[in-house]
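BUG-326 | component: ligand-complex export | severity: low

The export step for calcium ion jobs runs without errors, but we want the raw record kept on the ticket for reference. Input record follows.
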Amino acid sequence: MKRKTIIDCDPGIDDSLALILALSSDDIEVLGITIVSGNTPVQMGFENAKKVLKHMQRLDIPIYIGAAVPLTKDYVNALDTHGKDGLGESFLPDVDGYLQDKDAVSFLIETLKKEHCSVIALGPLTNIAQVIMKDPTAFACIDQLISMGGNFRSHGNCSPVAEYNYWEDPDSAALVFQYLAKIQKQIHMIGLDVTRKIVLTPNLLSYIEHLHSYHGTFIKQITKFYFKFHWEWEHIIGCVINDPLAMAFYIQPQICTGFAAYVEIVTDGAARGQSIVDEYGFYKKKANAYVYHQVDTFAFYHLFFERLFQCSKAEIAYLDKLIVKE
Ligand code: BDR
Ligand code: CA
């Protein structure tokens, strides 16, 4: 049976790759895509989601525009990372259509109350926090809540201690984690400890182009800028693709290893956005999160290549030679 899913995202280069993975997966039914301001302002994220759906020939999937700004902080985009158009300066043509009959938060609330479904959150948690504020019973209906965000032992990517999605709207992230503690549920936190290991290298990109020129051309167009950014800022040849790992974990949880813990998000000051993981139980609070700190990079790429390019065993064996071992 297909798993009913809502993808909340801020596309964004790596968000787009996560969408492509979900839409290449027969066991996932995407009920809708909700957009939040993050990497890109919501309107641009909406346009980019349409471009991805057009590429996937899935313009039947609804997209809803959500929060334009964080709960209390000023909005800071990440176009320095994702390019002026949020899709690596690919400047793909706009896609018409999609009249908005409701906003993202209303869609989330209605759908969560009606369907047994999971939410994969790939951007700041503003829309999700607004669900809690408007209708906590709807939030409690979420089957699995997976968030790409935070960090445990790894350093941050937009401050020494904070990951972008939680830094961008720390108040929303804090509210989500606090509310989970209250209702004794857990979020799956796919943070930088694991996503940093998922590097799309030039070799892998080149292999993708050989395997599947349709996806290969698209992925090359949107990741070119990201490659440049990663070299300039992190001296990485290739680019870290965070969000597809959250999607891959949803499909195949064994890809990541982690533990249950109480997590608190810092909202202000030098540690804004930091996810404090109480690994040793100092706070004596019940776990509100599963924190993942190890990832099987090979398993991730096997899944990604099998789903997107329907690779044969021989093609997967060749893939293994291209994955950089740590
Ligand atoms: C996260 O922030 C964005 O740049 C990516 O899309 C990802 O969701 C990584 O910190
Ligand atoms: Ca994202």
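Assignee comment: Attached the raw record above. The pocket of calcium ion (ligand 2) is lined by residues 9-10, 12, 15, 38-39, 122-123, 243 (CB under 6 Å).
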